[in-house]
Amino acid sequence: FPVLFMYFTSISTAQTDCLHLREQCVNAANGCESVWNVVEDVCNISVLGNRCKAEDAIGCNRIIQLLADEYPEFKNCLCTADDFCSITTLLGKQCSINKDNISKQARLQWRLSSLSKQAYTANKTCLDVNKECVEDEVCNKQLSLYLKVCSVNKKCDMEECQAAIRFFYQNMPFEVAQMMAFCDCIQPDESCHRAKELLHGKPCAVIAVPPPSCLNVIHVCKENELCRKKYTTFQSKCWRHVTKKCYDDEACLETLIKDDMPCSANADCKAAYISNWGTMLRVECTCQNLPPMEQALCKLFHHMLHSKSCFS
């Protein structure tokens, strides 16, 4: 009896802790609510229900993993180790998070996709890539959710849209993510530009009014743990020369010019760049209206974040 009592007490505590964490998450002003909203969309759950009705169990597990990665306090009451949609255990059962198992499920899902079998080619237009994704059952399922959250037909919630983009690009093979992130429009084709905006999160995830300065974007990013980690990785993978020379010394960075900034542009760099999508680092920024003494550093940050020269 004492053993059973301890077991049920631990289950009850887990339920309380998870409900409490959800309330904290929803009320927090740190972007957690946005990720939680995407969890509800992907897993098709309600606040009151604890039964999973998601058609995409793998996607449900992946977004739960994303939630636990970005907000580690959830790791104590979320389970992502089983093969079924783990939202059934959201309010109770505790178990360890098994990233390898989720990765295997995701790879198996994408192995059924014809799109993932294609080798990356740099000359595909965004319209081509968009059509291929729509025609592919696995890709289209992910794209539909992302477009639902980021739809221009409803009031834009930038943080929620950014969370959906993070999930969208992290939930697909690197080859497919590359095709989408680096697609472009060669001709002045309106359909292609619309497809590009959809795939790249415009306008909801990247356009703020008024546009922030690039200095402000970096400073805000550094105050957020998730964004700071992604920025540090991006620096080390793409701009190793800059970080080796100046690290995080803004006074030193001001002395650099674009010509003195070789970019590695390798696969690790591309992956780090794509990982920035769905964070403050992808918000379009400006250097206008800044005092002259801040212009050089601002333009340097703008070059690092938004110049395509690294991947041309």
Key attributes of the depicted protein:
3 domains, Annexin V, domain 1, mainly alpha, single chain, globular
Layout of secondary structure:
Layout: H1 2-27, H2 32-43, H3 57-70, H4 99-111, H5 126-135, H6 137-150, H7 158-170, H8 174-181, H9 190-199, H10 214-222, H11 225-238, H12 240-246, H13 250-253, H14 267-275, H15 292-306
Notes on the structure:
The chain has 15 helices and no strands. The chain is mainly alpha-helical. It folds into three domains: 74 residues, no CATH class; 107 residues, no CATH class; 93 residues, Annexin V, domain 1 (Orthogonal Bundle). Helix 3 crosses helix 4. The longest helix is centred in the N-terminal third of the chain and has 26 residues. The radius of gyration is 21 Å and the shape is globular. The N terminus is likely disordered. It holds the Pfam family GDNF.
